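User: I'm preparing a small set of examples for a lab meeting where we compare how different chains pack in three dimensions. I only have the primary sequence for this one, and I'd like the structure in token form so I can line it up with the others. Please keep the answer compact; I'll paste it straight into my notes.
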Amino acid sequence: MSAIIILFAAVSCFIAAYVIYGRWLAKKLDIDPHRETPAHTMRDNIDYVPAKAPVLLGHHFASIAGAAPIIGPITAAVFGWVPVLLWLILGGIFIGAVHDFTSLVASIRHRGKSIGEVIETYVGHTGKQLFLIFAWATLVLVIAAFTILVVKTFVQTPAVGTSSSLFIALAIAFGFLIYRKNVSLGAASSVGVALLLCCVWLGIKMPIVFSENQALSGTIWTYIVLLYIFVASVTPVWILLQPRDYLNSFLLYMLLIGAFIGLLLKHPTVQFPQFVAFTDAKLGPMFPILFVTVACGAISGFHSLVASGTTAKQLNNERDAKVVTYGGMLIETLLAVIALLTAAILLPAEYKTIANPIVIFSNGVGAFMTTFGLPVHTGITFTALAVSAFALTSLDTATRLGRFAFQEYFKSSSRTWLTNRYVATFFTILPGAILALSGSYRAIWPIFGSANQLLAALALLAGSVWLAKRGIGNRFLTIPMVIMFLVTLSALVILIVQKSVLIQHYFYEPATSTDFNIVGTILLTVLAVLLFCVAIILAAQAWRSLKISK
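Assistant: Understood. Below is the structure token output for the 550-residue chain.
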């Protein structure tokens, strides 16, 4: 089968869904362009800052579209490309985009506060505190996993380190010109994008290498990245976070357009099997592992934290909510479909040989771009730079969101010093830094994937309760919520069992477990059990609240 047919089928579904289902959702959620948003009513020029729709879409899209929608579908392709494609399309349209849209609207109707605030209003203070603990723990895992991912990219591809550093300086200048010198967005964007491409070129020409010793170089980069995300979390959003995300979004737009045109011109044929097996020796059973492996390409709980954390505080007009969240999620799902196609055009033997999803994606997109004259090496390097840039963007956004969750949790406490943004940022980064410096990426990623999807189920639960209390039909949320609870709780059970077997094996046969981090495994297993318990308690409390409202 031609990859073009698959791509056009997916795009057609996304366009139809945005126009038809998106319009229906906007009516259900009572979108009113005349209602003032928190960005105006609570403006403080630090977190609450109104942004034009293109800028906010850029920030939101860059924040949610990290490396996960690329890694997930390519990794899950071991089950066959058809089940992955079906979950991407159906999950993205009816669950992921709905989840993002509802999370944003629920937040702006509650003064731009997090989903935890919604839970407090309709479920209770205890429910909110439990949710904030869950969200904060998930964001710590995001910080740990993405710090390791970014640092590995900087070490393996030094050009990325140079370009990313230059991006930061460019973003600060861009924000200053827009918000302090009132330069028009169009003019600033034109110059900014041109300079962005110069940053990419300079990165290739002048890669940063701290040491030939990769371990030493990685440690230095880790401390630099941790320092950067601390600064990014505490500075006003208009100085760095918003302009950096906006400019970086052009990288992904160019990547998507280049890959799309390259696919059309190259016209590759799908060679990978439509279906392989219901169980993979490394990943486990298709249900529920395929769903949590695909992750952000179909639905991600992290998106609810972005939508209700930073995006809601910058929404200029309610009419922008649909394009920013529902539209932003569908664009990300399109990226996931393209990522899947870079794996599907390979023979099974090639897929197993390459193994690394980022390499598969970069090689695939780089090969597509050769059709319109771009050298394959340049195309591969540009793709790798774009992916790493978005991983770093997700990282600094996650840190700010973790700070928000920490501050909200201690807001009613007598320890007011814990709500200070510098203190809250420090205590958010600290556990993530400890995990990141351990380098245990493979141990962190599975628990992150499951926690991330369970967070989405909790966000859908919060939206369901909110609408029920207002007397609005909520089946478009409750059905996805039940699906995600079944998937994620099942995945956590499998993960807990797998880790428990490893721990038992370590103590009974220590001689065969020399290359095994027992402390990290125990901590992650305990965390998985705690997340499972917190989710069950929250679900029970919300169910009681729903019964009372009915």
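A couple of notes for your slides: Residues 3-549 form a domain with the Amino acid/polyamine transporter I fold (CATH 1.20.1740.10). Strands lie at 279-280, 284-285.

User: Perfect, thanks.
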